[in-house]
Amino acid sequence: MKNHWLRLGIPLTLLAVTLLFAGCARDTASVAQQEQASSAQTEKQAAAVYTGSIVGKSNKAQTVSIEVGKGADAQTYMLKFDDDTTGIEHAEPGEAAIINWEQRGEDKFAVDIKPKLATLPEGVTEIDVDELYQLIENDTPMVLADARPESRYNQAHLPGAVNLPVPLLTEKKEAVLPKDKDTLLIFYCGGFT
């Protein structure tokens, strides 16, 4: 009788052990597949942002093109936009932008377009238009510097502004700045900074 149970018990034990390990292996593979899918989704979300320079926009075709990267590594991407796209006013050729997008079927759609703002150096403070207006209205002693090219400055500039374009600043450095280091110095240009 013992032999009968042993003969029956050994194959059943082997079958149970095989199923146990096969089940675990299947669960491990399933977990690995889920982790890969999650990792791919995270990468897809991270890749769903383009930062670069707007090279074109067509309101008729509802497309915007952005160049990402520099030099030989630069790539241009075209995205569609629709009435739900926010910030489309920031998609102007030549302007730096950040475009969040999503894949819809075969097409990439711009979800949100933001200007890519310059990072202000330490010790530099940004002021808004209303604050600058108040400073001008109150005749606050300051140097108001228009950093645009001379041709743009000659077309129009803020009252009392002097033209200090970036190439001049790069060339002459502090020689074009006020000698008194306590002088309020305000720079402006033609776009988002």
Automatic annotation (TrEMBL):
Signal peptide: 1-22
Keyword list, A-Z: Signal
Membrane-spanning residues: none
Domain spans labelled Rhodanese: 143-191
GO MF annotation terms: thiosulfate-cyanide sulfurtransferase activity
Protein name: Rhodanese-like domain-containing protein
Organism listed in the record: Desulfofustis glycolicus DSM 9705
